[in-house]
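Continuing the batch. This is chain 6 of the set; chains 1 through 5 are on the previous pages. Same settings as before, nothing changed between runs. Recording input and output for traceability.
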Amino acid sequence: MERAKSPQDRLADYCRENSIPCLDLLPAFKKQAKENIFVLANDGRDDIWHLTDYGHKLSAKEIQRFLEAKGLVPAKR
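Output for chain 6:
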């Protein structure tokens, strides 16, 4: 029995099949503690929609790395 694909895998497949550059930030986020990436609510609920300053900086770094690797922007000097 084949395992159901995650939404990330399905989107990556779609992008690959249609030659659309696609970056998944989840692997970079998973390497960090959630409180470093996301603004957490005081009542214990996780807020995965709002990033901390560090979360924004990490996202920007990953986007820049991705764009440079794909040759979509000149490499940073």
